[in-house]
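Sample pair:
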Amino acid sequence: MAAHQCRDEAIPGLTKTWLSSINNHNVGGFYEFDSSANAQNYIDRLLLPFAKKINGNLSVKLLDGEITRAANIGMDSPYYPAA
């Protein structure tokens, strides 16, 4: 699996991580925000209006990465560089 991480300067507090599977090159990923307020703002101002515009369904999960910070640093995760 390949990963690419970038910051989106147009959206406050957002870092995008895109992943590509090895065998079929499907693309997926996750968005990380610096605060739950910025995440909720992204949902309210961008995702919900877009879903409504295309008459689509929207499902969003907000996860707290701080809970697992120590474990991720301990296993040398590239998403949590050691301080």
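The helical segments are 36-53, 69-74.
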